[in-house]
Amino acid sequence: MRIIQIIDSLEAGGAERVAVNYANGLSSLRIQSYICVTRKEGLLKQNLSSNVGYIFLNKKSTLDLNAFLKLKKYITKNKIDILHAHSTSYFIAVVMKFFNPKLKIVWHDHYGNSEFLSVRPYKLLKLSSFFFNYILSVNPKLADWARLKLSCKNIEYVKNYPILSSSATDNTKLKGKDGKRVVCLANLREQKNHLMLLEAFKTVTQDHPDWSLHCIGKNFEDDYANSVFNKVRDLNLDSNVYFYNSKSDILNILQQCQVGVLVSKSEGLPLSLLEYGLAKLPVIATDVGDCRSLINDSNLGILIEDINKQTISEAITKFITNEDSAQLCANNYMIKINKEYSENAVLDKLKKIYKTIIE
C-alpha cells in the first residue's frame, strides 16, 4: 500500500497532529507513507519522520489548477493508492479521483463543533461523499451524523491517539511559580471558551494568588484573540495568565504543569486531553464531544456538565487543594490513555481499513 495523508496546514492543531502521527506511524510499519500539505506549512513539519514523503502545494484558492496538477504528478510518480484526506481537504482528493478513478479516498472527519451539527453546512461534502470509499470519525456522534447525512456506506469511529516525545529543541520555559501551574492546550478559537476560563481563573486566584494559567495555542490575531487579551486586562490577570502561541515542545511544557484543563463549548475527540494523560496530569474537561469517554469515572478526572465559571473554578480549586486526589486521578487517567488510546491499536485498525478498500 502507498498512502498519502492530505491536510490543509501543519499548524499545531488537532487534525494536523493526527495527520502527522498517521504519516509517521505508517512509515514505522514499513508502509510507503506520504503527506501532502495543501495551503500552509507550520511547526509540525519538524515532527515529520525522514521516511515520510512530503509535498507542499502552496494552494492559493479552491480551484488552483497548478496545485491540482502538482499533486496529480506526485501521486502518479509515487504510485499512490489511497488518499487519506483530513477535514476540509476532501475536495482536492475528489479532484484527484477525477484524474484517476482507481484512487481510493478515506475521509477523516475531525469536526470540532459536534455539539452543533444541526447547523453544519454539508452540501458540498454530501456531493463529494459519493466518491469516498471510507469515512473515519473522531467520535461516535460524528459517525452517526455521517450515516444520516452523507452518501458513503463505510463509516467508522476511530480513536485519536497521542504522541509526545522529547527533542533537542525543547526550550520553552513557562513563567509563574514552579509547582503551581495550570495549562490549557487550545488554539485561540471561540469554541475553546477561553473567556469563561479566564473568569473562572480570576476566582481561583482570589484564594490562590500564586497559581498561574498557561495557554498554549495558535493566536489568529482576530477579534476573538483581542477579546481574550482584553479580558485578561479587565480582570487584572496579567501576572497570573500567560499566552505562548503555538509550540512544538508539548511534552516539555506539560512536564512543567500540575493541572490540565479544557473547557470547550464543543469538541470532537480533543487530542490535548489525550496528551494530558501521557504527561500524567490530572484533567478537567467539559462534557462535550467524546470527552465523557475519556473521563467516565470520578477517579479519572473532573468532567464538568454544567458549564459556568463557578463549576470551572471549583474544579481547578479541588485539584489545587487536594494533592492526593489530583495524584490519584492523574495516575488512573495515564493508565487509561496508555491502555485504550495506543498507537499500535489505532494503526492496526487503520491498516485493516486500508486493506478492505484496496482488495
TrEMBL record:
One of its GO terms (molecular function) is glycosyltransferase activity. SUPFAM superfamilies: UDP-Glycosyltransferase/glycogen phosphorylase. It comes from the Bacteria. Keywords: Glycosyltransferase, Transferase. Residues 173-332 form the Glycosyl transferase family domain. Its EC number is 2.4.-.-. It holds the Pfam family Glyco_transf_4. This is Glycosyltransferase. Residues 13-147 form the Glycosyltransferase subfamily 4-like N-terminal domain. It is an enzyme of class 2 (transferase).
